[in-house]
Amino acid sequence: MPRKARILLANMPHHIVQRGHNREPVFLADEDYQYYRDNLFEWKEKLDIRLYAWCLMTNHVHLLVEPGDRPETVSLLMKRLAGRQAAYVNKLEGRRGSLWEGRFKASVVQAESYFLACCRYIELNPVRAGMVRGPRQYKWSSYRARIGVEKGLELDGHEELRRLGRNGEQGVAAYKEFIKAGVPADELAFLSEAWSRNQLTGNRRFVDEIERRVGLRIEHRRPGRPRVGDE
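That's the Transposase sequence above. Prediction below.
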């Protein structure tokens, strides 16, 4: 069966996921996480990619990024990150071979409906995995920087985040409440299916619009609850 086409589009958010080879651990020590994180911030600047959310789990990574006018920079970013991490780990462990699955997953996100939902999905990964009780306790995600308790790892701004409050303090308080509500089960299933199948994270009108733009039929998900803006 041919692989499903992966869609990358200019000036739109993308939920990116890359897993370790055979789902084996990629990060074993703090230094491993830090090396990947430092490369992420270095290369997103070099490639002029906006970084909205990130989370490094033991055997996979989640990113919410937006390329500029050149959507291929997303592939370049993932190539640089994967290559550097593989070289780093192989040298450290005196090994050879693949560290990652061959292809990363990508889902273009309808910002006005699902941007905040994707941020929450990504930053609550460690909580769902039972690694921590709350996202603030996990230091390898964007949540601590987003709420202002970790400096030097600033995220790019987005209109959907600015809508949460008239100022930074109000926006942070609103985002904390949004996170505290957790990810509803149907939203969790919808977002997970979108990235795992390289589909679009959006409502039916959004899917139709993107299909017209790229000239491809993009298989949509099974019918479920009406998404935001479907009705």
